[in-house]
Amino acid sequence: MVEMTPKALKDICKKHNLYSTPSLNDKLYLQYKGFSEIQNLDVYTGLRCVWLEGNGIQHIKGLEKCTELRTLYLHENCIEKIENLETLVLLDTLNLNKNCVQKIENLSMLPNLHNLLLSHNKLSTYEDVEHLKDCKGLQSIDLQQNKIDDIRILDLFKQIPDLRVIYLQGNPVIKKIKHYRKTITAMLPTLKYLDDRPIFPEDRLRAEAFAKGLAEGGVKAGQAAERAEIKRQREEKKRKEEENFQQFEEMLRNARLEREAKKAEEEKQKEEAAKLGATTTTTTTNSKETTNMPTAIETAQKGEMNPFSGEKVVPTKENELLKQAREERVNELMKGAGAPPPAPSTAKTNGVAPPLPPPSTNNAKTTNNSNVGESEKNDSDIFGDDDADDDAVNSALELNAAAYGVDMDSIRREIGIVRPKTATTQPAKKKVMKKKEVVVEAPAETEVEELD
């Protein structure tokens, strides 16, 4: 057999990447090493879990200094007696499966012991397991595959207040307990797991109904009570399913109504917005129709709102270069139309246009033939012969007409740049041209007649 020497323990720590300082280790892997005795663990004071299964250990000893131990695996050894665990007050799990334990003892001083595993041992009588009633903190007990045949073991389980898991299969006592699973389930209200499967709430209700009927009227009464409980559970389940289905339908209905209400609200908002837009458009159109030119100009000069579109005018500062270029262009356009018109007055004129500037002396009407020819030449330049000058003059006249609120023909007549449409002017020009033609052709005809 192999001895558990300090060097062997250090080699194991090195192999499993544990600390070389023994007191720093909280776990130790010592399984399947062939150790016959637990020793040299006094310096491993920080251990919380030790694996010692699969060795040849016969006695539990050498763990007195491991006071921080929570889990101790000693299964698959040769242990016959439970002993030397008094100092392990924090121990939670003790695994002694597949040993040679003949009696449960020396565990009552472990208040934190919750899991005790003693399957495949040599427990047989009630006295062998009687010590369990002193282990009040147990929650899980594994006693399967022993030789327990005393039915009084059920009384031991009743005395453990928080027992949740029991493994008892493989013992002769199971054959002595009638309706084994139902009886134990009804007997232990805290039990959650029995042998190979869990105990569900429905199973507990059926077991309790069966036990109550069995106590009142025998097996048949118990079976009838169990069937009634099964029927009640099915109806309860069906009722809950219907409630859940109705709640689901109600949820869908509420969601649909909410969606429809939201859609109707959106459509209402769209209609209101459309009506508001139509009203604004109508108001703008009416304002355009009823606003005359002088009023529009007066409103625009205030700089508050555009009278045509109804939009607020945003004041901006004109760029100096653009302003200079614009003024030069206006002066160039106004050269052929005389002096620029004065700025329009903002005062009310009661519908009477302000006085127009005096007509230019250069364009005055004269009866002199030379002056008539010069006037005709100027008129030709303005209205037909020179397109650039014509456009410039028309632009200037439009500005004047917009400023004074009158038509362009009146301005042309006032400043004297419009040819009077009389019957004497145009025929006179044609007559002169015919006279010239006669002067040119007459001599030729005269000479021909004289020769003849």
Main attributes of the structure:
mainly alpha, Leucine-rich repeat, LRR (right-handed beta-alpha superhelix), 9 strands, 452 residues, single chain, nine-stranded mixed sheet
Description:
The chain is mainly α. The protein folds into 4 domains: 6-209, Leucine-rich repeat, LRR (right-handed beta-alpha superhelix); 210-290; 320-421, no CATH class; 422-452. Helix content is 47%, strand content 6%. The chain has helices at 6-15, 126-129, 153-158, 180-187, 201-290, 293-302, 320-333, 369-385, 387-404, 408-415, 425-451, and strands at residues 27-29, 49-51, 71-73, 93-95, 115-117, 140-142, 165-167, 193-194, 197-198. The protein has a 9-stranded mixed sheet, with no helix packed on it. Residues 345-353, 359-386 and 419-452 have low confidence and may be disordered.
Helix content: 40-55%
Uncertain regions: pLDDT < 50 for 5+ in a row?
A: 345-353, 359-386, 419-452
How far the N terminus sits from the C terminus, by CA atoms, comes to 174 Å
- Would you identify the CATH architecture of the largest domain? Alpha-Beta Horseshoe
**Secondary-structure class:** mainly alpha
Strand content: 5-15%
Number of helices: 11
* Pattern of helices and strands: HEEEEEHEHEHEEHHHHHHH
Strand runs, count: 9
Shape: elongated
